[in-house]
Amino acid sequence: xxxxxxxxxxxxxxxxxxxxxxxxxxxxxxxxxxxxxxxxxxxxxxxxxxxxxxxxxxxxxxxxxxxxxxxxxxxxxxxxxxxxxxxxxxxxxxxxxxxxxxxxxxxxxxxxxxxxxxxxxxxxxxxxxxxxxxxxxxxxxxxxxxxxxxxxxxxxxxxxxxxxxxxxxxxxxxxxxxxxxxxxxxxxxxxxxxxxxxxxxxxxxxxxxxxxxxxxxxxxxxxxxxxxxxxxxxxxxxxxxxxxxxxxxxxxxxxxxxxxxxxxxxxxxxxxxxxxxxxxxxxxxxxxxxxxxxxxxxxxxxxxxxxxxxxxxxxxxxxxxxxxxxxxxxxxxxxxxxxxxxxxxxxxxxxxxxxxxxxxxxxxxxxxxxxxxxxxxxxxxxxxxxxxxxxxxxxxxxxxxxxxxxxxxxxxxxxxxxxxxxxxxxxxxxxxxxxxxxxxxxxxxxxxxxxxxxxxxxxxxxxxxxxxxxxxxxxxxxxxxxxxxxxxxxxxxxxxxxxxxxxxxxxxxxxxxxxxxxxxxxxxxxxxxxxxxxxxxxx
Length: 539
Prior knowledge:
The protein is mainly beta. The chain is 4% helix and 50% strand.
């Protein structure tokens, strides 16, 4: 009996035993795109991907290529993986990406599958070299140099620094790791436009402006619009980009900061260009019982002067326009106001059952300046909220955490409608948010020019009423959904590959309007559309 029971037990264990899933592998090669030769010592990274098609963040494995540029990852579970490759002197690349910063395509590994022939074609970095020269043609040492490129920020193209360098003892510079494209090169004052040291002087301001080297763009202009662009190709080195510095008149701005909290003796004072140009903010510190400050080396222009101080959970702030034209500025008084409380409430309409609003918050975004901490208020069970430490300046209002069945129907402050330009929080009014539970929805499927799933296609949902464009990226099946939409007329456009931020720019979108698909959404409506992605080589 005992022997029979043992046999039955062993048979039971054997019956319940299952072989472990077979492991898979990924093999490939990294090549030099320009030379067509294998790349030794390139680093290839493998990241697991979740069901939504996005990397989970932890690099599971890293491999270095051999003499033939080959790499291999073994012992892989079935699933999706993202691969990227990089090497010194080359631009980093995600596998399958259509551009250098693109998201790429996943590599699918079935149980026990050996995936081969994964090939990376790395592009050698482009380089710009040259000298920074003074008015006598001599090299200037330790001079900051920048490469700027047009990128999209806030729905508009603007020059943004993408690489920096410092000149050598004979004024030479090298700007490496550049993508192919068009750049402007500039050199600025050694202070970089920043002036944080405290300057207090009882001496009268000089009768004439100071002279200093201005931010100068290649070849020798202080205006970025007249700079000569520098075009670089893949792996190209553009030499002889010599920037001849221009001296210009600069001015001083003197004043004092007045705070309602007499115990506070320190405030940061910043001059920010009002036109949003590439110039750097000029920053200083107001100290002492009188809160005096002096900012030097201020180029002519129109600025917003901002004084900020924070402590004890409160924000103190002042904003005032300042024009620096032809003369020094003296006697500027920035009177800071403490941040008061703004009360608010949320109302829900068009709801048959109350929606879950436990995640809804109201956030104030500063307009024209950067706050240390944007005021935020969580909506309570009584549908009320409080925004604390709100200085009386202009803010845009953002409502976050809105359920996907709802949309923001209106936002009012003191009875007046709050537009995208924001509102001055100055009259002690109440902030009223109305949510409608009749949100609409659009489901989209994107295909490429060959009719295949538009993996990582970028889709813009553009309201015809001029409100904010919504942009999403399709999953690995080319599928995505826009939820929580206001009823109205919309256009949809999809791109295989597009520069980040470009779909928000009306000038960029305009040439593609004929390819847009229009949808009309009724209250609580649901539409499904198929989109053909605009090919990267059609732009």
